[in-house]
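Morning!

This is the sequence you dropped in the shared folder:
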Amino acid sequence: MNTNELLSSLKIKSIYGALPAEVLSIEQDSRKVKKHSLFICIRGFQTDGHSFYSQALHNGANIIVAEERLPIDLTKYALVIVKDTAKALAILANKFYHYPSTNMTVYGVTGTNGKTTVTTLIKQLLDMNNHEAALLGTNGIELLNEYTESDNTTCDVLTNQKVLHKAVQTGINHMVMEISSHGLAQGRQRGIDFDVVTFTNLSQDHLDYHKTMEKYGYTKGLLFAQLGNNLTEEKNIILNRDDPWYEVYNDMTPFEVISYGIYKEADFQATSITYYEDRTCFTLQSPEGTIPVTTKLIGEFNVYNVLAAIASVFIKTKIAVTELVRSFASIDHITGRLQKLDIGAPISIYIDYAHTPDAIEKVIASLQPFKQKRILLVVGTGGDRDVSKRPLMAEKASIADYVFLTINDSRSEDSQVILTDMKKGMKHGNYRSIPNRKTAISLAIDMSEPGDIVIIAGKGLEKYQIIKDKKQPHSDKEIAIQSCLIKYNLNV
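The structure's back. Tokens below.
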């Protein structure tokens, strides 16, 4: 892109040195810089991009955007100083990639629990009804049946714009995105023109970062408030009518709100719910009438997820509700979300991502009606994260008959400190504290007896554990399967 045209999007700036005619790429990681790149120095929590400007120049950058005067040879390179490089990145990236989100329908889903399930369901409903979609979220980036891992639930500004641009270039006109509270607080969604924004629920999580539930809740609300006030645009807000934050978020936007729920009257409401071990049935009250629904997803929390997905897709695409309901007959479990491992064992094993007190309670409640003997639960929390959540996790875990307290990701914290914090919340003595997650899962399987339910919660199908600052290979699913093979002499 022409350099002057690109930089014209920044109104307040100071330019030193001679600008090159063109910019061929924008980068914030000096390792990705190539010839004729514009490198933006971003201040992060652990690193400062200003420390890597020389590496960027060495790799081929000829423009540096920074917040301070850097010792650059201005006879060879250009330096652009701005007040806020993070905002400048969003502005420049949007300009460079031609504002891709304005050329497609973008769905954003936020909330404490359910984001991955709801975004996956929205994508599947769109795909199954001839609206090809891409997906960005906890499980990575899914674009044209290609999967790329991502470090965060919500990608950084530059990655988002690159993916959106690639989707537009390949003819995909729907993008579905998980939007985390960290992402909102750090502005990772800046520059994305959302068309449909959906709220799942709010319960305690991330208080190490947000400090209070009020700040956490209002951070989530940025997704709705930042839709703006231009009522010539068609924006759609989908809110959980049963959640206490419904009224707050409803007041944050001038756009029409579409509600869903179970207990309060809503635009999309589930009634007459019947829960089975392998499916859930309910009656859907919708703008198009009363429709019976059967889904392979189990538990009350998944009824909310199904309602959120149906409402989100219907309100924008106008696909008939009956068609969306019919699609659920072909939608199986969501990977790593209350996923049953069918390996022929005389026990039932479920893998779930539940990592909040509310999610733990709901997972156990969903499986409680089908308990033949005992529920054995492996549950963990992470290091360097919300300490106040730890005893609450154990308190909710106490609903299970036997609990294995363990670690999700220890990071830099002492595992024994984490477990000591958790133990304070236990309501009975039927538990063990085991720092090594692999050992905890293996012991849970080994202790099981035919007819038991084993729930392994906290990581879903993540493929690693974070220990210190390294990602170590780890799979709850593979450990559970191997442990079952040994315990029950299975041949899978």
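Headline: The chain is about 30% helix and 25% strand.

More detail when I'm at my desk.
O.
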